[in-house]
Write a structure and sequence with these properties.
14 strands; about 35% helix; Glycosyltransferase 2-like domain-containing protein; about 15% strand; signal; globular; Glycosyltransferase
Length: about 475
């Protein structure tokens, strides 16, 4: 299902502030050693960690004055009739009905969420922004302007706002989000071996969340970005029944094409998710249910157990169940092949070079950023600390997408010339110093030699005078290298 929304507005500037020393954004999470707390500083997140790259920045956001927003929803039912009833009672007609496109498919032929998301992407036309979310979601008033403002605040044209949205229970009676925290993904479920497919443990909350937070995790429940991300990075439709692993695969596909993931701050928390199967269920009961399901999955890692749990409520004929189990296993191996994880059995490589042709950043670089080891699962690391933007290994690909931007940034040629001039001036100064001191050094050496001949037991104190000149020589050689 596709909705088309139009928007035109002027964004107010948002000051780039550093961490509030009294109420800094922070995140707490449980480990086997106790609770760990990270203080975050998102004002620095677009600055690379490497000293030699700290002048680099991601491409700045480009926001036209008028634009459309594509809204994609995969749903088991259509809401068009209900929408038209509400619209007619309000406007006297089913206003904006022409903006809605419904692509219907037989539910019996369903093959999982990734196939639905791939089909959904085909409905995108020339919209500027794309919002993909689950059907069981709720949006706050002015969600469109707030999401775009939040996207601009990433200071990154290649930003994707993504997370697991908070539950309906966090919306107050006024239809607003009153909390100081925001949903964030930053930790993996524990893997028993390197062949286990990584997936996020679930929502962790950043307290005092004021800015979008750089993340290593894609959350399928919310994705908001420029539509060039959806057009350039297609969802793999050869991953039938893929559920666990969908998000790590999407994280890699986007990241390798130059996109960066950010979880929205509390100011951009406008999408909410129904995390219950029944509206009457409390959040506590649902999370208790999730706990036991995760416990079972950790104890029983087999594909059979995954399929069995999934079909307890919706039994299929034996032949169909076995076929689906085989297809799900093949999809898992496809994920492992893409992420260079060990796997056993067959893998369908159809279209791999088309879906995973991103070379802006490498898969090795992604695994390091994502905190996953393809050699030893005990080396996996959480990514709840402050992450930093990783420059592109092949920036020319993004530069071609965004004419006028180069990774070195504005004034790169001038900065390069200034650096060359500085090096040249330094070398010349060292050469002059070397020439000036060389005669003095040779003169001192000659004096020491003569003095030593006069008294062979006398140690020449003038060695200290020679060392500075020798240091100049060493420095000159080092710079020349």
């Amino acid at each position: 299902m596709h909705f088309r929304a139009a928007a035109a507005f002027v964004l107010a500037g948002v000051a780039s502030t550093s961490v509030d020393m009294y109420n800094p954004p922070n995140i707490n999470y449980n480990t086997e050693h106790g609770i760990v707390r990270h203080i975050l500083d998102p004002a620095t997140q677009n600055t690379p960690l490497r000293f030699t790259q700290q002048h680099l920045r991601p491409p700045p956001p480009r926001l036209p004055s008028v634009f459309d927003i594509f809204i994609g929803i995969s749903s088991y039912r259509t809401c068009l009739d209900e929408y038209c009833k509400l619209a007619t009672s309000h406007w006297g007609e089913c206003k904006f009905k022409s903006h809605i496109t419904i692509d219907s498919h037989d539910a019996a032929a369903s093959q999982g969420p990734t196939i639905a998301r791939h089909t959904q992407q085909q409905l995108i036309r020339d919209e500027e922004f794309c919002l993909q979310l689950d059907a069981h979601s709720q949006l706050l008033a002015d969600w469109d302007t707030k999401l775009v403002k939040e996207w601009v605040r990433t200071d990154n044209e290649m930003a994707v706002l993504t997370a697991y949205p908070s539950g309906f229970h966090m919306i107050d009676e006024n239809g607003t989000y009153p909390h100081l925290s925001a949903s964030h993904l930053c930790d993996h479920s524990k893997r028993s071996g390197p062949d286990d497919i990584p997936f996020a443990t679930g929502i962790l909350f950043i307290e005092y969340s004021e800015r979008p937070q750089l993340s290593a995790f894609f959350g399928a429940g919310l994705s908001f970005s420029k539509c060039h991300a959806e057009k350039r990075v297609r969802v793999d439709n050869y991953t039938k029944w893929l559920f666990f692993g969908e998000e790590s695969l999407r994280s890699y596909a986007l990241w390798s094409h130059g996109y960066d993931l950010y979880s929205p701050s509390r100011h951009g928390s406008v999408v909410f998710h129904n995390w219950t199967n029944d509206p009457s269920r409390t959040s506590y009961v649902y999370h208790l249910y999730l706990f036991f399901i995760k416990l079972i999955l950790r104890l029983c890692k087999s594909n059979f157990m995954l399929v069995y749990i999934r079909y307890m409520q919706h039994p299929l004929p034996e032949a169909a169940r076995r076929r689906r189990a085989d297809e799900e296993k093949a999809s898992g191996n496809r994920v492992r092949a893409v992420l260079t994880l060990p796997f056993h059995g067959d893998v369908d490589t159809t279209g791999l070079s088309w879906f995973y042709n991103g070379s802006v950043r490498s898969v090795e670089s992604f695994l390091g950023f994502h905190g996953v080891s393809n050699a030893n699962a005990s080396w996996d690391q959480e990514r709840c600390h402050q992450l930093h933007w990783v420059p592109y290994e092949r920036p020319e690909i993004v530069e071609q997408l965004l004419p006028g931007w180069v990774q070195e940034g504005l004034g790169a040629h001038e900065r390069s010339n200034d650096m060359q001039n500085l090096v040249a001036d330094t070398l010349q100064a060292l050469r002059d110093q070397w020439t000036k001191d060389k005669e003095h050094m040779l003169h001192n050496v000659e004096l020491m030699h003569l003095k030593g001949l006069e008294d062979r037991t006398h140690l020449p104190a003038s060695v200290a005078e020679v060392l500075p000149a020798m240091a100049v020589g060493v420095a000159l050689a080092s710079v020349a290298l």
